[in-house]
Amino acid sequence: MKNFLKQIIKSIFRKLYLRFENKFLEKNEKVLFLKANEIIQNRNYDSSNINKFEFSIFSQWGDDGIINYLINNIEIANKKFVELGVEDYLESNTRFLMQNNNWSGFIVDGNCKLLDTVKSRYFYWKYDLKSLCKFIDRENINEIINYSGFHGNIGLLSIDLDGNDFWIWKNLNTLDPDIVVIEYNYRYGPEKSVSTPYDKNFNRFSFHESGIVYGSSLKALAKLGKEKGMSLVGTNLAGNNAYFVKSKFLNQNIREKSVKECFNSGKFREHRDINKKLTFKSIEEEKKILNNIKVEEV
Length: 298
Prior knowledge:
Distance between the termini: 58 Å
CATH class of the largest domain: Alpha Beta
Largest sheet: 7 strands, mixed
Shape: globular
Order of helices and strands: HHEHEHHEHEHEEHHEEHHE
Radius of gyration: 20 Å
Number of helices: 11
Number of strands: 9
Number of domains: 2
Oligomer: single chain
Strand order of the largest sheet: 3-2-1-4-5-8-7
């Protein structure tokens, strides 16, 4: 009986907390939108350097600004997005696109508890957003997309899965996105065309305790993009996200770039010890560890 009452009290407090948090988020985010749109309105979009337009409202790095720049230079017919790997969606590549530009979206993550939290947020009912809790692999990716109801052409696809990103994109054939944002691992450098070997149940900490061996190199993604009719147009300054646009959309403001031309090396330090605590190893130390671990040439 005591446990039952504890669960009821816990549930009540959680609902009250989420209600308060939603009001706090909505109020403060209105200020962020005003500032973001002031930045957007004062910008000259006549440039092919996407890094000039970086800003962050909900993205971890400057990706909100880059995406805004791209959609202002491309005639996008279907204003829909799919984002794979979102956690609680408070920090994401597509939330600003949804709330500022009123796009429709579909998000997927393997953590059901976090997605349940997303559904409790004020923005979930305000916008056309659908979600699915599912661990994504290359065997089920097209089935997952079919569940979304999105088929063929969409405006943007974002992939950030800390692992099988290359293999997921390679096997995805039910979507035809105008823009693709996909994570790369800068530690591989600009010369290697490699990825972690495919493992349906890949986990970066199971593969190597440090957590720094995941994903693929920028060169590998550039080659895959070419196969899919897409051109690499840049990376963010943080050195973790690559941007691809359908080759037919290239223009004076959005031009194709070589890996060497647009490669950015990250400075964030993710190495962890056996207890998963950050060790703050230098970038050079991280690269040495990664160079001694076998990955797959692609």
